[in-house]
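Retro notes
What went well: the complex prediction finally ran end to end.
Inputs used:
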Amino acid sequence: MMETFAMRLEPELQRRLIKTVAERVIAHADELVSLDQAIGDGDHGLNMKRGFEAVLADLDKLVQLPLGEALKGVGTALVMKVGGASGPLYGSLFLALGKSLPDEATRATLAEAFSAAVDAVRARGKSDAGQKTMLDVLVPVLAALREGSSELSGLRETAQRAAEATIPMKATRGRASFLGERSIGHMDPGARSSALMLSAIIDVMEGRQ
Amino acid sequence: MTRNVGIVIVSHSPDVARGTADMVRQMVGDEVPLAWCGGTTDGRLGTSVESILAAIDSAWSESGVAILVDLGGAETNSEMAVELLPDPRRGRVVVCNAPIVEGAVMAATEASAGSTLEQVRRTAEELKPA
């Protein structure tokens, strides 16, 4: 571990961030299962719950690490424990974020690190926005982050609206694409879980959690 | 130790993976290193990167390993597992774009003839939907 290169959050804030994201996903596991039963194979909620339970089990260790290393730890836990495609997808997101986050994070450098993370998801999923996936939330949030005009609460709304915008989309990637036209009319579970995580992060940053 | 390409079968269901491996064994006997995995670490349907890494290790051959998968998550998890392999091994494992049962049988038959990893993959992928 190369501490000199690493950004440090207050350990207490780092704990709250990781814990809040994990608990938010776990608390919505049933909802994610229902969304996934409509257009996938119904395992998204349970898979994500399993992954984030593994993250929580590592929490004390993750809190001791510099932020970049901690994010990589979250990514590795998700890759190893989730059990569905969302493991490598979210795992790659956190691994790339951890790798790209500079020691002095400003909004601009955070946007660039998030951009690298979104690219990692694109590459892992061989996908892009418009295919009714988590990228339909991540890409607009990245654009808003880059633009720099909106407040944190604006990012939460961007994520929420983007997740809702997947409802009328037709899936062309992932399990839901087998359903073709029948995938229309349901929110994508991956878009929902992405919006949940972003909203949890923003809650912590705003001091709501 | 065999020099034939190894075969790894990755399904969401341990029953499908084991059944596919049984069919492969019946075709090629012990001439081809073979391993399968299916299901999550807590016994649900799904695939696990940890289990895939263990299966690759168990079917390892210096000639390489061809992986056959069923649905999307098995493919994504297998690709992730390949990327996590240490360097000399990483370039010698491929995920075939082929139906799992037919692909595994065809790939193993090709492998048992001493073919290269690329030949094994091509034979399996002849079965892919047009």
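What we learned: Residues 6-125 of chain B form a domain with the Rossmann fold fold (CATH 3.40.50.510).
What to try next: split runs per interface for comparison.
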